Amino acid sequence: MDNIKPREQIEKIEAYSPGTPVEEVQRQLGLTKVVKLASNENPFGYSPLAEQAMIEEVQKINMYPEVALPLLAGSLAEKLGVSREQLFFGNGSDEIIRLLTTTYINQSDEAVMADVTFPRYYTDVLIGGGTPITVPLVEGVHDLEGMLAAVRAKTKMVFVCNPNNPTGTVVGKEQLLHFIERIPSHVLIVIDEAYYEYVHSTDYLETVPLLDKYPNLIVLRTFSKIYGLAGLRVGYGLMNPELVQNLMRVKEPFNVNRMAQRAALASLNDDKFVAMTRERNEQGKRIYERTFSELGLPYFSSQANFVMVDVKRPAKIVYMDLLKRGVIVRPVGYPTTIRVTIGNEEEVETFVQALKML
Ligand SMILES: Cc1ncc(COP(=O)(O)O)c(C=O)c1O
């Protein structure tokens, strides 16, 4: 196919490499018990209200879903104190990141982001034909001053992942506010809060109340993490209604399916499930932190449902050694760091025992 080449940017892009699936490890290593702590999924499942809603909705699956998501938009707008016009829903927040870059990035535009952070920003900017500009983290935290210094006339977008995947760290309240204030108005500020509901730190900026003041501010959230609906694919963005209108022009017509809409709506009514997940996640995190300290392994203080730890050995080797013991983690970040999702009680114990045996 030498005469049919993809666009130039596409050749620079690596296909997304997801967390290794449980079934693959079972097949390849002949293991029966395998725990996956590689994709920051919710180990406690999802709300029973979501299940009931999906059972009811399945009977309507022959019909296309509603495009404006009126029920979900209404309920979420009320919960968050925003107008429906400020809400945009995507097939996961992944899709919203892609739509933002497709809609706003021109060929010569740049987008500033951290290194290391969620890899889709980088890839989607490249796919859009723009240039990603990366600014290294400082001790696992976004270097907001460095990122601000990287903003210039060509900059169209900046990404702040807060809490940051894969380090789990958050940026300080004052620092982030000061950053938002100083970003020029021609630059879109995308704050990805996929792990918002897990945050316990009091030094964390509530960004939604700032939307009216900063029309270039976009906040991304998802039902994939604390709500446990990763397999359904539904996320949302909060932003100026004009930005929403532009994304509506570009999106696929029926991007959020019926089951996802109904399950997300039902999940919003289950504060108990969210509180239970938050609490058990904290308990698991404390066990991880205690174990890492006992083993003398440095880790970043996490506000999310995963922790990044320095295993002081090549991460790929540690990943393989843990795999042989039936635990799937993610060798990401730096040469000797792995990211481990906080599992349920049994999974946490399995990982801790496996790590101690290495
Ligand atoms: C920081 C961050 N943003 C976005 C996403 C994508 O989430 P979704 O399932 O809503 O597409 C993830 C998923 O892991 C993530 O970690």
Topology summary:
Layout: H1 22-29, E1 35-36, H2 48-57, H3 70-80, E2 87-90, H4 93-104, E3 110-115, H5 120-127, E4 131-136, H6 144-150, E5 155-161, H7 173-182, E6 188-192, E7 217-222, E8 235-238, H8 241-250, H9 258-268, H10 271-295, E9 306-310, H11 315-324, E10 327-328, E11 337-341, H12 345-357
Parallel strand pairs: 1-10, 3-4, 3-5, 5-6, 6-7
Antiparallel strand pairs: 2-8, 7-8, 9-11
The structure holds pyridoxal-5'-phosphate.
Pyridoxal-5'-phosphate (PLP) is lined by residues 40, 92-94, 118, 161, 165, 192, 194, 222, 224, 230, 235.
Quick recap:
The chain is an alpha/beta fold. The chain has helices spanning 22-29, 48-57, 70-80, 93-104, 120-127, 144-150, 173-182, 241-250, 258-268, 271-295, 315-324, 345-357, and strands at 35-36, 87-90, 110-115, 131-136, 155-161, 188-192, 217-222, 235-238, 306-310, 327-328, 337-341.
Task: Please explain how this structure is put together.
The protein is an alpha/beta fold. The chain contains twelve helices and eleven strands. α2 (48-57) packs antiparallel against α9 (258-268) and α10 (271-295) packs parallel to α12 (345-357). It is globular and about 55 Å long. The termini are far apart. It has two domains: 17-45 and 272-357, Aspartate Aminotransferase, domain 1, CATH 3.90.1150; 48-268, Type I PLP-dependent aspartate aminotransferase-like (Major domain) (Aspartate Aminotransferase, domain 2, 3-Layer(aba) Sandwich), CATH 3.40.640. The strands form three sheets. Strands 2-8-7-6-5-3-4 form a seven-stranded mixed β-sheet, with helices on both faces. A two-stranded parallel sheet has the order 1-10. The protein has a two-stranded antiparallel sheet with strand order 9-11. Bound molecules: pyridoxal-5'-phosphate (PLP). The site of pyridoxal-5'-phosphate has 13 residues, from α4.
